[in-house]
Design a protein that fits this description.
alpha+beta, 14 strands, OB fold (Dihydrolipoamide Acetyltransferase, E2P), 282 residues, 14-stranded mixed β-sheet
């Protein structure tokens, strides 16, 4: 396959004629005795697919050289086509139809669309047709020359193409601003849902937090636990949590057997607390 390289006129091979009817004969064209297949540079497609006049079974597409001043590879492709034309025109005395045609001041190359053609978009995905007013690259095959009524016509077939199709969005696609707190809450909700019911013991809600310390000590006193024991408990835990005098104002005590008194001076703030609520006499 020829791709962005200059052809050598001497390597263009004209083969024996193949007669198809009284008015139609094919002259195969080869390059180095191989099929002459060319990958084009990116070309403009002004009109898209068209049907041959009075024949809805045959389609063609015209590709334009209008970007030739911006792309040197298009110039190279253009010159290669002229080289082929000159080779044929010099070889035969027949009339040779133009290989590059002009329409509305545009230079065009006409390609017959093969029924087995593969059409891709720029993402290499299959699409079903060639769209007009786009750019694309083409793999074309010079099948040969048709001789009819003493005129030679070039027969280029389109084997495959890649079209840069426009991009369309079929649904709402904006990225909206979301507050960080809302994002964190959504993540937490998703985490809870994903763990729900998975495995033994998973998905169970965590137990409620422990009651405040003042309620704990109040419950101990109501159960009849000696005040010395409550004081000891409070002393051990006082480094972490301290209670307020108001926490024990409404506590009622049961009588217990007298035990050896401890010096309340060990915890001055506790002594003052119990004096206020009547647990320690003055």
């Amino acid at each position: 396959m020829i791709y962005n390289q200059q052809l050598n006129k001497n390597n263009i091979n004209i083969k024996k004629r193949l007669k198809y009817s009284d008015n139609c004969t094919l002259i195969p064209i080869k390059y180095n005795n191989n099929d002459l297949i060319i990958q084009t540079p990116k070309m403009y497609i002004p009109y898209g697919e068209k049907y041959v006049y009075n024949n809805n079974n045959k389609k063609f597409v015209d590709i334009s050289f209008q970007n030739i001043n911006n792309d040197n590879n298009i110039k190279l492709f253009y010159n290669n086509l002229l080289l082929i034309y000159n080779k044929i025109n010099d070889f035969y005395e027949y009339n040779v139809d133009d290989i590059i045609k002009k329409y509305n001041k545009n230079d065009l190359l006409r390609l017959k669309i093969n029924k087995e053609i593969l059409i891709f978009d720029q993402n290499k995905k299959n699409i079903d047709k060639i769209i007009n007013n786009t750019y694309g690259s083409f793999i074309i095959y010079l099948h040969g020359l048709w001789l009819s009524n003493n005129t030679l016509y070039f027969h280029f077939e389109l084997l495959q193409c890649k079209i840069d199709i426009p991009i369309f969005l079929n649904e709402y696609s904006f990225i909206d601003d979301v507050k960080p707190d809302l994002i964190n809450n959504i993540k937490k909700d998703k985490g809870n849902k994903s763990n729900k019911g998975k495995g033994k013991g998973k998905g169970i809600q965590p137990p409620p937090p422990p009651p405040p310390l003042n309620e704990k000590y109040e419950k101990m006193i109501r159960m009849g636990i000696p005040k010395e024991a409550v004081l000891q408990k409070m002393r051990l835990e006082s480094k972490v949590n301290r209670i307020k005098p108001s926490d024990l104002q409404n506590v009622s005590l049961k009588k217990t057997k007298p035990n050896e008194k401890r010096k309340s001076e060990e915890l001055p703030y506790l002594a003052e607390l119990f004096k206020r609520i009547g647990l320690i006499s003055n």
